[in-house]
Structure formats: C-alpha cells, structure tokens
Amino acid sequence: MKDSPGKQKHSTSLPTPRKIRRGCSKELYRTVKRLDIYIPQEKIAEGETLYYRKVIENLLWIAEQSSNRKALADWWDEAVSEELAELWQVDQNNLKRAFRQAFGG
C-alpha cells in the first residue's frame, strides 16, 4: 500500500482555531491556579484573547516546536508574559514561573 502523493508519513497537521483557543484557555487557567491570586474573569478572557492572537501569529513555528516544551515556554516568556503581566497586574517573574509549572517547560 502506497502513501498518496503529498502526504508525509510522520507530519502533523496544524491545529484548528478551536483547538488552539481551548489549549490557550487551559494553559492560562492552570497558570492562574498556580499564581494563587484572584484575577477577574474579564481580565482572564482578555488574557486568553491576547495569548490566542500571539499563538496564531507564530503558528508555524509553534507547530514545528510542538514536541519541545522548553522552547515553547521560552517563547511564551518572551512573547506573551510581559503583556499578560501588565494586563493582570502581576509580577512578570511570578507569572513566568507559574506558567512553566503549569505548562511543563
């Protein structure tokens, strides 16, 4: 049995927008739990939108790094944590630490 042309054996397809949004939501939920502070639901929703937008902007790179959680966590530190810390009015270093604990990077 032959593979059809254009299909690679071990390639992964890009996730759907719904899957990305759900993943972002779960990761931030776990991060907030580890911060152990109250963040209003509106701010959490704004944070999810911010994170989702950043992931969509870098989707190809993120998909290539899908098995490298350390690289993904490093990207999150650089691309997302500063804006999210400002939005949620939390210490950026605490936010980075909580995200890494929640994400596993």
Layout of SSEs?
Layout: H1 17-35, H2 41-57, H3 59-64, H4 69-79, H5 81-88, H6 92-103
Helix pairs in contact: 1-2, 1-6, 2-5, 4-6
Largest beta-sheet details: none
User: How many angstroms separate the termini?
Assistant: 39 Å
Return Rg in Å.
16 Å
Total separate domains: 1
Question: Structural class, judged by helices and strands?
Answer: mainly alpha
How many H/I helices?
A: 6
Beta-strand content estimate: under 5%
In one word, what is the shape?
globular
Q: Provide the residue-averaged pLDDT.
A: 90
DSSP strand count: 0
Unreliable sequence segments: none
Task: Compose a concise summary of this entry.
The chain has helices spanning 17-35, 41-57, 59-64, 69-79, 81-88, 92-103. With 105 residues, the protein is mainly α. It comes from Paenibacillus aceti.
Describe this structure as you would to a colleague.
- The chain is an all-alpha fold.
- It has one domain (17-103).
- 70% of the residues lie in helices and 0% in strands.
- It has helices at 17-35, 41-57, 59-64, 69-79, 81-88, 92-103.
- The protein is globular.
- The protein starts with 16 loop residues before the first helix and ends with a helix.
- The model has no long low-confidence stretch (mean pLDDT 90).
- This is Dehydrogenase.
Question: Which features does this protein show?
Answer:
single chain, 105 residues, 70% helix, globular
